[in-house]
Amino acid sequence: xxxxxxxxxxxxxxxxxxxxxLLVESxxxxxxxxxxxxxxxxxxxxxxxxxxxxVLLDVMMPGIDGFEVCRRLRQHPRxxxxxxxxxxxxxxxxxxxxxxxxxxxxxxxxxxxxxxxxYRIGYVLRAATALEELIRSERNLTSAQQIAxxxxxxxxxxxxxxxxxxxxxxxxxxDSLTFGDGLEAFLARVYPPDRPRVEEALTGARKGRGxxxxxxxxxxxxxxRTVHETAVVLTDPAGLPVSVQGTLQDVSERxxxxxxxxxxxFFDDLTGLPNRACFREMLQGALLRTARRGTRCGVILLxxxxxxxxxxxxxxxxxxxxxxxxxxxxxxxxxxxxxxxxRTMIEPETPRxxxxxxxxxxxxxxxxxxxxxxxxxxxxxxxxxxxxxHVAGQELTLSARVGFTLAPxxxxxxxxxxxxxxxxxxxxxxxxxxxxxxxxxxxxxxxxYARLSTENDLRRAVAANELRLFYQPKVDAxxxxxxxxxxxxxxxxxxxxxxxPGEFIPLAEETGLIGPLSDWVLDQAxxxxxxxxxxxxxxxxISVNLCAAQFRSDKLVADLAASLARHGLPxxxxxxxxxxxILMKDVDLASAMFAAIADQGIRISIDDFGTGYSSxxxxxxxxxxxxxxxxxxxxxxxxxxxxxxxxxxxxxxAGNLGMGVIAEGVEExxxxxxxxxxxxxxxxxxxxxxPLPEEAYRExxxxxxxxxxxxxxxxDPVL
Length: 719
Ligand code: C2E
Ligand code: CA
Ligand code: CA
Hints:
Structural class: alpha/beta
Strand content: 15-25%
Bound molecules: ligand C2E, calcium ion
Shape: elongated
């Protein structure tokens, strides 16, 4: 194969005019472009100006000789690797050696063999191109690794030789000289508690098992970083492991964001006590244990009396301080109970306390023999709370109203127990009990029976077509562009008017009516999309909420596909919103299901994100497209506040996982500005639009949102 020579430029540096003429003649005929120079100085200048691809350089020249010219060419800042072929007039080994010493690529002895010459040049050029490519790809790899904060390594099992990329050392904050050799050097840097796990993985790799895992490393400055490592084993034709190749990535930021979200989502920032979500989890655990042991569990809610007055008279800051002091008393109480138990040598279950929000606190008493024991604990706790507090130079005395309920006597489910305790505390607030402590009673149950009639009502509603689907627009706040909508169900009740889903979805879930209801919602939403398309409106995606029951059904994937097919719609027009708690019920099932759903082009978003803590560790296993920041974080969004921090962390997490992010419940322009500032531009909320009846949404599809209809919509921060 002949090399394409058209745009290959050769510089000849030779003082002998005849040799130059012959070279120009012979190589020009082969299609090369020729540049000539008669001595070293002008040769160097031509090298700069003409950018040749190859240099033919005579050794013997007046002025600076060929060896020196070659040395200087090699020092050229950008083009020091251009091949140089030296023309050694003398066919002796010494000048050949000197030619190589000064950096020549190759040599040709004079008199020149004209036939061989062009092949020689072709070969040199090919080798140079290959070298350039190798260097470039290595450089690309290095910079890609640098950007991703990645490193790679290779472990030859035969020689036990371990080689690392530069990026690898950079992750450890070291270089190849300080790092040392072999596995020992590496293991010494693994955070000790993680070492056994890492060693085990390496032992497995030696036997041919690849792995993926996260572990921590310690850098020379004492900094602990979390890395994610993937190792694959290469085998010989007989299938025996030969070497292990691994990549290492610094994922500390992602892990920190996760930890922070978990903390914020699970603990109350002000008091450091577990929050409501955490209390639910604790209660769930306690219920399982009590059921196993056949004991009781007391669920206690505390409502601080007249707390609003503290805020009003002493200010918000003093109010916060008071809440912190109350939290401290609760913790103190916890400790005292533990101490008492230890003295009596009974295996204790410490009562656990939490802040449920505002001035409401909760306590969980596990293994209580009866209501009396729970009540006596409550009185001991109230005794502690009665002692005066010192806040803002004032002495304060606070008291609390308390309601409690017992499991399994009054219920065995988290929700129903919390509801029962709430009924009890409301009763206590009304002053039904002299001491301010109220147990849940049968009488309170009666109110709950009222729900039963609703159930029959709902059964009828699904059949009688009283459900309505509303559409709430999602927008890009940067330019006001409509992105699609979320479908939200309503119940047009003949007597009670338009009911929000909160009033009937939980009931539908309990009674199994959710199945037909969900089918209706999906079909309705897709039918709407199909109508839009038929009327020539460019349809935008619609998201529907998925409930736990749908997720448990093994027909879900097939149902979605069948519904899309029935309406002749592509998958990308449908999005499903799933809450974290639904995912967490069965992680393996969920990730397989998501993959199958995503394969149809359907997008998946995680609803109410940030309120269910536990899925974070698994999040990367799911094929999820979008995280939907829960309304509660958006609601209290103030610059610098705790919720701005959590929102920032969620946005960062989404970025780290390569997912999109949308905020729901945006009501104020200030919330929208903060979100935009933090890098979240997709939003949904009353500020942009309420959930709209179909007709109104169709109008928005064709006209845009009335308040964003200006052509020059650009969000003005209103801070
Ligand atoms: P979600 O999925 O979190 O839906 C968003 C809720 O926030 C909707 O309440 C919506 O009206 C409300 N919202 C939107 N923007 C704002 C705002 O700026 N401020 C405030 N305060 N609220 C805003 P909605 O329609 O009452 O729905 C409540 C929940 O009911 C939904 O929460 C969802 O979990 C459930 N739901 C609604 N429709 C369906 C459905 O078709 N199927 C199922 N399984 N669940 C549904
Ligand atoms: Ca939703
Ligand atoms: Ca939501």
